[in-house]
Design a protein that fits this description.
Blueprint: H1 2-10, H2 13-32, H3 36-56, H4 67-71, H5 73-90
C-alpha cells in the first residue's frame, strides 16, 4: 500500500493527463452545445429525463419554469416592465 502511495506521489503524469483531459472535454461540450447534433442530443436527453420523472416520480429532475428569470434578471425586469406598460395601455 505504501509503495503505491509513493509511486503516485513521484509519478505525476496522471495529474496532468486528468487536467488536460478535463479541459479538452469542457471545450468539446462547449463547441457541441452550439451545433445541430449537440442540440438534438440535448433534446433527446431532456426527453429521457422527462420519461424517468414520469416513470419513477423523482421530482429532483424537474426544473422550475421560472428558472430563466433567476439566470437573466435584467431581461426578466425588462419583460416585467413591458408587461406593466401593456396592461396600463389596455385599461
Amino acid at each position: 500500500m505504501w509503495e503505491l502511495i509513493e509511486r503516485m506521489t513521484s509519478d505525476r503524469l496522471w495529474i496532468y493527463t486528468g487536467i488536460v483531459g478535463s479541459i479538452f472535454g469542457a471545450l468539446a461540450v462547449a463547441y457541441l452545445s452550439t451545433t445541430r447534433i449537440g442540440i438534438w442530443v440535448y433534446s433527446k436527453w431532456d426527453k429521457l429525463l422527462d420519461w424517468v420523472v414520469e416513470k419513477t416520480g423523482w421530482t429532483w429532475f424537474i426544473q422550475d419554469k421560472d428558472v430563466w428569470r433567476k439566470q437573466f434578471p435584467e431581461i426578466s425586469a425588462k419583460i416585467n416592465e413591458l408587461e406593466e406598460r401593456i396592461s396600463k395601455l389596455e385599461t
